[in-house]
Specification:
By secondary structure, the chain is mainly α. 50% of the residues lie in helices and 0% in strands. The model has no long low-confidence stretch (mean pLDDT 89).
Length: 151
């Protein structure tokens, strides 16, 4: 069984989150043919190094990809589709996705997590620019009504 086989079964039967589906779809073109019995600590470390040094992926994206594949393999183990005695995806050290000095030197870039609450919805950027240009926030005024109070 390959990663692609597992992901296909996982998507059909386990109903993963949209974020996991998106992350898994980015893994399949490169690693979809990898057999599940080949996933060990060395393979996982090589994959993470490749994401940092070649793909120059942000640490949050690395966490998302590793986490999505880990959840898929967890599901596969519960279903009896595979066994992973050491479960290399779950035994990673804290901070594994952060770029080391060597990673930054090889990649030529130091990627860090950019904290954000959410992405803008379509059309939101134009509305923001409109508010900046006019200096007026569109608000609806409603009277304050306090229920249960007596005058």
């Amino acid at each position: 069984m390959t990663i692609a086989d597992l992901v296909g079964d996982y998507e059909r039967e386990a109903h993963p989150s949209p974020q996991d589906i998106a992350s898994l779809k980015t893994i399949l073109p490169i690693h979809g043919t990898v057999r599940l019995n080949e996933i060990n600590a060395a393979w996982v470390e090589h994959w993470i190094a490749q994401m940092k040094r070649i793909d120059k992926v942000a640490p949050t994206t690395i966490h998302a990809k590793v986490g999505a594949l880990a959840r898929a393999t967890d599901w596969g183990m519960r279903k009896g589709l595979l066994t992973m005695p050491d479960h290399a995806l779950r035994s990673l050290p804290s901070g594994y996705a952060q770029y080391t000095k060597a990673d930054a030197a090889i990649a030529g870039v130091q990627r860090k997590d950019n904290e954000r609450d959410r992405r803008l919805e379509p059309g939101e950027w134009g509305k923001i620019l409109g508010v900046i240009a006019t200096g007026v926030l569109p608000r609806t005024r409603r009277p304050l009504v306090l229920e249960g109070r007596r005058n």
